[in-house]
Amino acid sequence: MDVAERALFADTVREITVQNTEDELDAALDGLGWSEALAEDRPTAVSVLFEAAGEANATSSALDVVLCSVLVPSQRDAVAVAMPPVRTCDAPARIDGPQVTVHGLATRAIGRHDSVVVVASDRSGHASFVVPTAALKLEHIRGLDPDLGLVEVTGSLEQRSLAGGTVADWRDAVAVGQLAIGHELVGAARAMLELARVHALERMQFGRPIASFQAIRHRLAESLVAIEAAAALLAAAWDEPDPVFAAMAKAVAGRSARTVARHCQQVLAGIGFTTEHPFHRYFRRVVVLDQLFGASNELTHGLGGDVLRSGSLPATFPL
Amino acid sequence: MELAEFKVSVDHWLDEHAEELEPEFEGIGTLDEQMAQLRKIMRLGYDAGFTRWGWPARVGGLGGSNLLRAYLGEALTARDLVEPGNYSMPEVLAPTMIDFAPPELAATMVPRLLSGEEIWCQGFSEPGTGSNLGSLACRATKDGDGWRVNGQKVWTSLAQYAQRCVLLTRTGTPESAHRGITAFFINMDSPGITVRPIETMHGVPEFSEVFYDDVFVPDERILGQLDGGWAVAMDLLPYERSTALWHRVTYLQRRLEQLVSLAPAGALDPASLGEAIEQVWALRARSRATQRRLEAGGTLGAETSIDKVLLGTAEQAVFDLAAESLGAWIAVGDDPESGRWRAEFLYSRAATIYGGSAEIQRNIIARRLLDLGADR
Predict the structure, then answer these.
(1) Tens-digit pLDDT profile for residues A250-294
(2) C-alpha distances in angstroms, A245 versus A235, B62, B281?
(3) Residue of A228, A239, A250 for testing the chain B interface, max B β-carbons within 10 Å
(4) Angle at Cα B356 formed by Cα B352 and Cα B357, nearest 5°?
(5) Which chain A residues touch B374 with a CB distance below 8 Å?
(6) Given a cut of 90, is residue A159 above it in pLDDT?
(7) Hey, which of B84, B124, B152, B265 has its CA 20 to 30 A from B68?
(8) What is the helix (H) or strand (E) element at residue A246, kind and residue range?
(9) Residue B240 a catalytic site member
């Protein structure tokens, strides 16, 4: 997409994420032709939608569509895709002799589909299978953020009864999932900062807006710095496709969003601790998103460990 | 000249002349040695054409985008051939001359800077004027076809080596604040200038107090408009946070790389190392976007304060890690290599102070980027 097309696309996507969530958002994205945009320009389609969804606190099954486009590019109609178990980037299933043991997460879209793509690992690598949804046990997760609609997926299947078994690009799928969630975290962080900014300008104490106090201003400035660091790393990770950069960007996006949550909650003070103010929805969302496709502390520890083992730093972004 | 072609010729030149370009000292060297090395690199780079690329022809440059300058500094820093802070001085001062000096003055002077023939400095801060630049008091009063400067500057980097100075003076009333400031391009050998280097905790006397006692400067050395010095300063400061900052990112990557290979087994905590890497890579991603915006003809402003905050944080993270994992070197080592790590660790403490403190950057972000209104 060129600059003008991208701006128009972004405006439209933002509008529909503000107005819709869940199934209605899926329908609106269909109407917009978002999957076609994904096929044409993945970085733009993913970054624009997930940042807008994060900002609007909306959910959709777009992540399934994105993962499906990487794992099963031949699939015309997107199906549900099993995601890694919480905190990790591991494949959601393990091949153990004739058995395939499934333990992962899914979006609520899994309830709408008859089959689900499950990537399984063994010593030699990864394979993807198309598994009947009915063969798996689905449990809706409430947890910290019930609105997110996460589902726990478990099961134990006979390998020979499964269709597919093609070699899977699991690393690529994880990288794209990390970038998508990274953008959602950035969007949610921007929304938290805007809520806190507006509150700081409206809330009067000692006869002046609290936005005039340096203690407040510096927390909000720190929040913007954290957001822009994550946004820059995400953009660079699309420019220079490398699973190491995607993991870094996800780690920084998760950590930044939690930093922003901390500062903005302090600025919002009492009202931000209630369910009468929208802040809590974003707070819940970013804490849970930080745990998907590798928690920031796991990814960061893993990066440091890899560098110590290999003795060399990751590649760098060329000028 | 395209960037890809430039990269190849720079790398080739650096490989071919590796021996000639190498510093003659071990470790960090004295400041005299560092400056001699810098001038050698600038002279060789100028003769080979490299330090001229990325600057316009009217000041002796060969044209091409800012990315060429960014890459040259990156390549020199990655090979430990220059100290990035000293090397980046033209990145801050040459654009000021190009934008504000009378054209013939810029055409005469800028080549001397790019060729290492001259070192320049920047006289902004005063004992009573740090973050509040608009309060400066160093006074210039009209005298015939020029001006007489009286006052004191402080934290003037490399003043003891400099032949010229971009100097901010008060030409309006004391109450005129940012409206009554004029910038001059002053010769440092003018009678009445006294330079006193300041001993620093990292042992490199890189900045000085400079005293101006009835120093004469002719009218044609005004940069920009009379009483228009604020615009000069505001134009200059973002340059400290663009190409100069890019060079510094490369330096941090280089030190991280060396730290990983030097730290004793088990001394580096994987989580702290991972976080420092993430901070430096995020800074590089941010700085790269700034470089590209500059290349596309964009002007730099308040958003570069984000780059500066990220730099201070990342630089301190890298050297905090060094202080932990190379603790013995930094605390009790007396060899040149230990001396270098110690000096650089100490200097990293200034990363949130120089070039506009971290607090001033946050004030700029709050006011200009978050639109939070006045702070009082």
Answers:
(1) 999 999 999 999 999 999 999 999 999 999 999 999 999 999 999
(2) 10, 35, 9
(3) A228
(4) 35
(5) 212
(6) no
(7) B124
(8) helix A243-272
(9) yes
Distances (CA, A) of B182 to A262, B26, B142, B178, B335: 44, 43, 12, 9, 47
- Which residues of chain B have a pLDDT value below 50? none
Are the Cβ atoms of B272 and A304 closer than 8 angstroms? yes
Report how far residue A88's alpha carbon sits from residue A105's, in angstroms, rounded to the nearest whole number: 11
CB contact under 8 A, B372 and A225: no
d(CA A170, CA A119): 7
Contacts of A132 (CB under 8 A, 6+ apart): A114, A115
Whether residue A164 has pLDDT greater than 70: no
Of B74, B83, B206, B240, the catalytic one is: B240
CA-nearest residue to B308 within chain A is: A225
Q: Supply A25's token pair.
A: 């958002």
Give the tokens for residue B101: 């000096």
Predicted TM-score (pTM) of this structure: 0.96
Q: Which of B307, B372, B375, B376 to mutate to test the interface with A (most CBs of A within 10 A)?
A: B372
CA gap B132, B126 in Å, rounded: 10
- With b for 16 or more beta-carbon neighbours within 10 A and e for fewer, the A220-257 pattern comes to bbbbbbbbbbbbbbbbbbbebeebbbbbbbbbbbbbbb
Scan for tokens 């976080």, then name that residue. B275
Q: How far away is chain A from the Cα of B88, in angstroms, using its nearest Cα?
A: 17
pLDDT tops 90 at residue A76: no
Strand partners for B195: B210
User: Residue A56: which pLDDT band, with cuts at 50, 70 and 90?
Assistant: very high
List the single residue in B with minimal CA-CA distance to A230: B282
CB contact, 8 Å: A315 with chain B?
A: no
Mean of the pLDDT values across residues A295-312?
Answer: 98
Q: What's the per-residue H, E or C state across chain B?
A: CCHHHHHHHHHHHHHHCHHHHCCCCCCCCCHHHHHHHHHHHHHHHHHCCHHHECCCHHHCCCECCHHHHHHHHHHHHHCCCCCHHHHCHHHHHHHHHHHHCCHHHHHHHHHHHHCCCCCEEEECCECCECCCHHHCCCEEEEECCEEEEEEEEEEEECHHHCCEEEEEEECCCHHHHHHHEEEEEEECCCCCEEEEECCCCCCCCCEEEEEEEEEEEEHHHEECCCCCHHHHHHHHHHHHHCHHHHHHHHHHHHHHHHHHHHCCCCCCCHHHHHHHHHHHHHHHHHHHHHHHHHHCCCCCCCCHHHHHHHHHHHHHHHHHHHHHHCHHHHHHCCCHHHHHHHHHHHHHHHHHCCCCCHHHHHHHHHHHHCCCCCCC
Structure tokens belonging to residue B239: 């340059």
Structure tokens at B58: 């009217």
Written as one letter, the residue type at B101 is: A
Q: Do A301 and B274 touch (CB under 8 A)?
A: yes
